[in-house]
Amino acid sequence: MKAFADKVKEARISLGISQAQLAQEVGVSPRSVQAYERGEKKPRAAVMSRLAKALKVSVKFLVLDECEDPMAEIEKDNYIEEARERYGAKGARDVEQLLADNAALFAGGELSQDQKDAFFQAVMTAYVTCKEEAKAKFGRKNP
Fold this sequence. Notes:
Elements: H1 4-15, H2 19-26, H3 30-38, H4 45-55, H5 59-63, H6 74-102, H7 113-138
Helix pairs in contact: 1-3, 2-3, 6-7
């Protein structure tokens, strides 16, 4: 079981990039990357997503100490980040919960990557459609 700090440092080193290069790619200061690698702080969700993407690992891998698979649920990350960009932190939490709740539909069966992508895209499309319809129906009315 590895801590966040160790995972960040090991992933960065395995990519052969410096702390400064990682910081630039993520959009944080080199001092922030140093703090992540020393275990002094963890980034907020939006930065965590950019960090995972820059390190080519999943958010789940970075966030959960008990997760040992760098690619665990990485296919969800783009959908959650898209929801964050459109609807903020609550939207990201909503999509993450929707994807987790609906995983039970698979009943323990294995899906191919194409099947997972199709499923996640369908859930995301349904979520965005519902959000936009609610916004149109209940949002502010222009005088």
